[in-house]
Specification:
By secondary structure, this protein is of the alpha/beta class. It has helices at residues 13-16, 37-45, 59-67, 74-82, 99-116, 128-136, 154-163, 191-203, 214-223, 248-256, 267-270, 279-292, 329-339, 344-363; strands spanning 19-20, 24-25, 35-36, 49-50, 87-88, 121-123, 139-141, 144-145, 167-169, 206-208, 228-229, 261-263, 298-300. It has a 4-stranded parallel sheet with strand order 4-5-7-6, sandwiched between helices.
Length: 365
């Protein structure tokens, strides 16, 4: 990278980076890619929210950061900050064992990590803190879970809200709340699930339906009085065989409630081809959303960390996009939006403004 006081930290663009090709700048010294001044200004000026953004997919490393504060180094923070992402929603889904205990331990671990690194991180509890972390140069952590099976009773919703949880995906696979996208048969939102949605609305916790089956997806949107999010789930119209992607009808219903869909950068959910899958295909999903329901309902839910999901050795199944350095994915996405003639305001909305608005509506009690 150029330096720790790079353009990402607010240095003057015209002085802080070498110029390439009339107003294009190399942001990552080890990479040949360069970015327009407009792209750099948009990322620097926006509050960028990744609604399924992982600090690391190496969960052993994550656990070591939580239990041993000194193991998280300044270089780790700089790498996260230089990604351009201001707020991460690093939710995971516990599906086996004592899910209540696992979810409780996960949130307690995040709280301990944030407390130990309070000069660098801040827990997002209300919408005003999005701008606050941006202004302070901190990284916001939005605590959530990808399974709501830890809500054994309605009061557990309140209990986990008090611990700092602000988003909960109703199902990872099917549970007593409703069906998952991988279920052979989805019977829809249960009566208990509807009561959980109601309690989440009451306390100001956002309903996430990314992994829900089709019927549960529609039922949850109908049951909620507040905007419902698809934090990380692409458009099925572009990936017809993927049950994890959402139908146009579901997206339209979600948008009518004021919700937002976060576009993922995981290969199987981006394009069905066995050939090259690139950032251009990610942008196709945003184009589809914009035409279907309006750009106000598009966001980012990358579902990946800064290294991608593919192991160094060749796997039988690939998850990463071709030609993408995941550490700079926000810059590549923004450059693509610029090249497709999105306005500055619409790009700011996609980078985080839409999720900020929807979360503010969902958190209003």
């Amino acid at each position: 990278m150029i330096s720790r006081r790079s353009v990402l930290a607010g240095a003057a663009l015209s002085l802080g980076a070498p110029m390439i090709n009339r107003g294009r700048f190399a942001l990552f010294a080890q990479n040949a890619a360069d970015y327009s001044v407009r792209t750099l200004d948009l990322v620097r000026g926006s509050t960028v929210i990744d609604m399924l953004g992982l600090l690391t997919l190496n969960y052993r490393k994550q656990l070591s950061w939580e239990v041993g504060a000194v193991r998280f180094q300044q270089a780790d923070f700089f790498r996260l900050r230089d990604s351009g992402i201001n707020v991460f929603h690093p939710a995971v889904g516990y599906t086996d064992g004592d899910i209540y205990e696992e979810s409780f331990r996960d949130i307690v671990g995040w709280n301990a990590f944030i407390k130990a690194h309070s000069e660098q991180f801040h827990r997002i509890e209300n919408v005003g803190q999005f701008q606050q972390v941006k202004a302070l140069g901190k990284i916001g952590i939005l605590i959530g879970q990808q399974n709501s099976a830890h809500f054994r009773t309605l009061d557990d919703v309140n209990r986990f809200y008090d611990l700092g949880q602000r988003v909960s995906q109703l199902t990872y696979n099917g549970n007593r709340i409703g069906g998952g996208s991988s279920d052979a048969h989805d019977e829809g939102l249960s009566a208990y699930g509807a009561s959980i949605v109601g309690r989440m609305n009451d306390v100001g916790m956002t309903v996430d339906i990314s992994h829900c089956g089709d019927r549960t997806t529609m039922d949850a949107i109908e049951a909620s009085r507040k905007p419902v999010l698809m934090t990380h789930s692409n458009c099925r119209a572009l990936v017809p065989g993927s049950a994890r992607c959402k139908t146009d009808e579901a997206i339209q219903r979600m948008a009518a409630k004021g919700g937002v869909l976060g576009i993922t950068m995981v290969r199987p959910f981006v394009h069905p081809t066995a050939g090259r899958v690139t950032m251009d295909h990610v942008l196709d999903h945003i184009d589809h959303l914009a035409k279907l329901v309006g750009v106000e309902h598009a966001g980012i839910g990358s579902d990946v960390d800064l290294d991608g999901r593919d192991a160094p050795v060749q796997q039988s199944k690939r998850y990463d996009l071709d030609g993408l350095n995941y550490a700079k994915k926000i810059y590549d996405l923004t450059e693509g939006l610029v090249s497709r003639n999105y306005s500055n305001r619409n790009i700011e909305l996609i980078l985080g403004g839409n999720f900020e608005r929807a979360l503010a509506d969902a958190w209003t009690v």
